[in-house]
Amino acid sequence: MIRILFADDHEMVRIGVSSYLSAQPDMDVVAEADDGGEAVELALKLKPDVILMDLVMKEMDGIEATNKIMNKWPEAKIIIVTSFLDDEKVYPALEAGATSYLLKTSKASEIAKAIRATYNGQSVLEPEVTGKIMTKMRQKPVEHLHEQLTDREMEILLLIAAGKTNQEIADELFIALKTVKVHVSNILGKLEVQDRTQAVIYAFKHHLVQ
Fold it and tell me: Cellular location of this protein (predicted)?
């Protein structure tokens, strides 16, 4: 049996979903909570297999409750079930440690399916949530690209900006010319530029050199 804790401040939602889940042959709703604080207390006391967590609740919201649970019980498997898809809800919930993210518009059968998947170590996300995550990954600010450089690559970038040739860089750092060329290639790739000139422009633009 998959032991479930359901936290939601809407009684009718809890009754409807809990009734459906309890009717499943492999599920048992062992407890319900109507606010985040109670959810934390019950989660740490009962150690359910899966926790269904609403986001907006009185006294303590689902994000704070998820944080508290995960801090004291990192193995917890939490599914967010909410009406919200805005960024200030999605990202904090996932960063807090939620395993899955569903909308309350999901059918009860879909919630049950997500519970089984989460119980088995999988992550279930609404398509809109997956899209948000992918978009955020693609929109990494250009000013952070140089943070990907290793210390050696940053050193070589500064030497390039100083007008050094590959051979001069190799001589100054006591490394092989071939090694310098590999580093330069990596630098261009990480900075998403085409050549050394563009790399130098990047370095000046972002105040890496005076």
Answer: Cytoplasm
Last-in-domain residue among 115, 138, 161: 138
> For the domain that residue 86 is a member of, what is the CATH number?
3.40.50.2300
Between CA 60 and CA 203 the distance in angstroms is 46
CA-based radius of gyration for the chain: 25
Number of domains in the chain: 2
Backbone angles phi, psi at 29, to 5 degrees: -80, 100
Residue 210 is assigned to a structural domain of this protein: no
Which residues are paired to 125 by β-bridges? 101
Residue 143 CA to residue 161 CA, distance in Å, equals: 17
Residue 123, CA distances (Å) to 27, 96, 141 in order: 18, 14, 27
- 83-122 confidence digits (pLDDT tens): 888 877 888 888 888 989 999 989 999 999 999 999 998 8
Q: Please give the Cα distance from 164 to 210 (Å, whole number).
A: 16
Residue identified by tokens 């009717």 is: 23
> How far apart are alpha carbons 62 and 55 in whole angstroms?
4
The DSSP 8-state label assigned to residue 25 in this structure reads T
pLDDT tens per residue across span 26-46 = 999 999 999 999 999 999 999
For 75, other C-beta atoms within 10 Å of its C-beta total 6
What is the extent of the structural domain holding 101? Answer: 2-138
- Angstrom CA distances, 49 to 52, 78, 83, 197, stand at 10, 9, 23, 56
Half-sphere exposure of 104 (CA within 13 A, CB side): 16
